[in-house]
Amino acid sequence: MHADSRYHAVYEGWKADPEAFWAEEAQKLHWFKQPDRIFDPALGVYGRWFVGGETNTCFNCLDRQIAAGRGTEKALIYDSVMSGQKRVYTYDEVLTEVQAIAAVLQNLGVGKGDRVVIYMPMVAEATFSMLACARLGAIHSVVFGGFAAHELATRLDDSQAKVVISASCGLEPGRVVAYKPLLDQAIDMARFKPEACLILQRDQLHAPLRYEHGDIDFAQAVEAEKVKGTQVPCVPVLATDPLYVLYTSGTTGQPKGVVRDNGGHMVALRWSMENFFGVKPGETFWAASDIGWVVGHSYIVYGPLLAGNASVIFEGKPVGTPDAGTYWRIVQDHDVKVMFTAPTAFRAIRRDDGEGEHIARYDTSGLRALFLAGERADTETIKWAERMLKVPVIDHWWQTETGWPVAGNPVGLGLMPVKYGSPTRPMPGYDLQVVDDDGHALPPNTLGNIVLKLPLPPGCLVSFWNADERFRSTCLEEFPGYYKTADAGLVDEDGYVFVMARTDDIINCAGHRLSTGAMEEVCAMHPDVAECAVIGVADPLKGQIPCGFMVLKSKVERDEALIASEIVDLVRNEIGPVAAFRTVMVVKRLPKTRSGKVLRGTMQKIADGLPWKMPATIDDPVILDEITEILQKHGYCEQHKAMAG
Ligand code: COA
Ligand code: AMP
């Protein structure tokens, strides 16, 4: 299995002539007009791929597959444990749904370049809506359902969306999440108001529609177009035109709008389905994620359809809906060949089904590989999954910004030997290096900043939405000629990458990317808070959870527990339940350097029970004793040692 991996030959082939490599891959897709240049270094922030080419991503996902004879094959498999609804859509049927939505959008004046915000739970219509936007050359921006109204408002303003597509509700275990009031609040808050909102009414909760504000019943409007049989041809767009904007946590409360283009994105994703994930056309691929995240964009929607696969859209949780066997039921029922999820999901399954009794209840023999990403995969969980499933369990590393795996073990090219703790080696397209803070290359096995040599390959972000300068200053300026991943790690003597930690204030909580900086901004809004710090502490299930330290204003005499619970509510209401912000500690002072920088890194090490050194620049060492004491009182430090290590 190992000796014949084609990885080295393919990687070297790419390195010898990147443009020839991607030019050949581009020919596997449809172009209305071939690119004039494969790569133009003079365009965009760091150059642009497939310049002058005209294409359409929806055409490549649907029309091209149907023309190749896949019309009656499975394309999207909807399986909701939350509602009990299940439905298989063929490529032909997906095209019908997508054309009808595209027609509705067109009637609302949506055209090439217009933005459409999609704020929806895991329903098939969310996927159809994304493809409908792509068909028209409109730019979608999907907002995760677990975000609160304020986050949605920020995205409405930044994208200046013409239309919003939403649903009446989402379904979480034990509660129905009413989306419409959140949407209405967000629109009231936003400076830039959409012209219309298409609302999908779900049986679990009907939302009162504000017709006077432009609300439209999604199903009725789409049905009317289906009855008419409206055909909506694909609008040719430039390869360099944006396909979507996906907002992701930055270091402040202002999220970054990652812009993905049409040409590079489709070429890179198609390559990855075949060569990285090792799935063949006609097979079923399942990314157990959410369309609100990049994994959902790349590997629930676009990747599988571009490669002629069937993709599962799953609404539910890995455990408790109804039990830890749900994933295996899906694998069995839909003959899933390759699966992708976050390590957190597996930690939850292992917690509830350590002996694999649920796994044994289902026939998972069709499964060839399990891919894990989104956060650091702990070796124990990987080994447990390998033992239980008896298939390769593959850790791979990437980010919202890159859109597809930077480092991994490519099943499609033949696996390389596994080193636990490492997502293996960089994929073709990525020249990965580890440098010190001054940008000097570091020798093997030395911890430093992981950077990617420019240009980034096709499929990676081209910029932030309307914010080239922010993209330059946050990602490209610190290490000239390189993209800064903001992950720290090392490369060993065999070229294996080890990703250890973020170098900024991003944390990964249950596979969700969150900014502690954004949480600090919200905590600081509380009238009793003088200053605060939020850090990520190790959590056995979620990987990391946020933990807030509050210094109250001197005259405050209110009950500290009450203030803490108000702050928890504030974060839930401003950012959303997904922030999982539940721990607040009131402290007298925050530990700082003499120049006033809060020592968050040291606090985190203390909380996790890791070895730490007294920073030479600390202003008052006694404060760290106070912090340690309060952390110990809350059960941190010692208790967290094992899991943080
Ligand atoms: N809409 C509304 N609310 C949402 C939501 C959504 N789409 N997703 C999560 N939430 C809410 C949850 O209901 C929960 O609310 P609560 O505080 O009222 O209980 C909160 O956000 C935190 O959710 P979550 O982080 O999912 O934690 P959990 O305790 O409900 O579940 C796991 C724990 C491990 C089962 C769950 O986090 C999980 O499935 N993780 C895997 C995530 C994943 O696959 N990520 C994709 C990256 S590849
Ligand atoms: P996101 O943009 O939500 O995909 O989060 C990206 C970040 O998650 C990365 O920058 C890493 O910090 C972390 N991450 C993702 N996958 C892995 C992995 N396999 N190992 C370690 N960290 C990971």
From TrEMBL:
Keyword terms, alphabetized: Metal-binding
InterPro entries: ACAS_N, AMP-bd_C, AMP-bd_C_sf, AMP-binding_CS, AMP-dep_synth/lig_dom, ANL_N_sf
Domain AMP-dependent synthetase/ligase residues, every copy: 67-453
Residues spanning the signal sequence: none
One Pfam family hit: AMP-binding
Domain AMP-binding enzyme C-terminal: 519-597
Source superkingdom: Bacteria
Gene3D superfamilies per the UniProt record, alphabetical: 3.30.300.30, N-terminal domain of ligase-like (3.40.50.12780)
UniProt keyword Signal, yes or no: no
Domain called Acetyl-coenzyme A synthetase N-terminal: residue spans: 7-61
Homology family: Belongs to the ATP-dependent AMP-binding enzyme family.
Protein's UniProt name: AMP-binding protein
Organism: Rhizobium helianthi
